[in-house]
Write a structure and sequence with these properties.
By secondary structure, the protein is mainly alpha-helical. It has one domain. It has 5 helices and no strands. Helix 3 packs across helix 4. The radius of gyration is 25 Å and the shape is elongated.
């Protein structure tokens, strides 16, 4: 079951359907719809797995995200990307409405910003930002007896 997407009591991703209400005739998902409810939930799980993979690779300690602000942020991206994929499954990728294209482009841009470290989740920072692994240590002073210098500019000590 999806972690970030909004589901009703019967497990239908109503948040995703809200994005599609002006673009499709799909009003519900069940075992007879095309795609079926299980196929749609599997698609949402794949999207969430992609996001969680990026979060884990970027050093977030809690994956899947659990903070309310982070979940709300990720919900929007999961639902719009899910709506994009559902639209393309039903109608094909040809002649997409501009808004549907924008959902996919915005999702891809979000993942790119996460990977480049230009965006963080609101409730937490990656561990790599909080706990650096490497420290900057100045190299030890050189012993002039054993280190020959041709000119004074070769010296890097003060």
């Amino acid at each position: 079951m999806p972690t970030y997407a909004e589901l009703d009591t019967s497990g239908v991703p109503v948040g995703m359907l809200k994005w599609l209400q002006y673009y499709t005739d799909i009003t519900t998902l069940d075992t007879t719809s095309e795609p079926t409810l299980n196929q749609t939930l599997a698609t949402l799980d794949q999207i969430e797995a992609e996001i969680n993979g990026v979060l884990a690779a970027e050093g977030y300690a809690t994956v899947p995200a659990s903070g309310s602000a982070s979940v709300n942020l990720l919900r929007g991206y999961v639902e719009t990307e899910g709506a994009y994929k559902l639209y393309t499954q039903v109608y094909g990728p040809n002649a997409l409405p501009e808004a549907v294209k924008a959902w996919h482009e915005d999702y891809r841009a979000f993942l790119s910003r996460l990977r480049r470290g230009e965006q963080y989740l609101p409730d937490q920072q990656p561990q790599s930002e909080d706990e650096p692994v490497f420290g900057i240590v100045r190299h030890p002073e050189r012993d002039d007896t054993f280190t020959f210098r041709w000119q004074p500019r070769d010296w890097d000590e003060p």
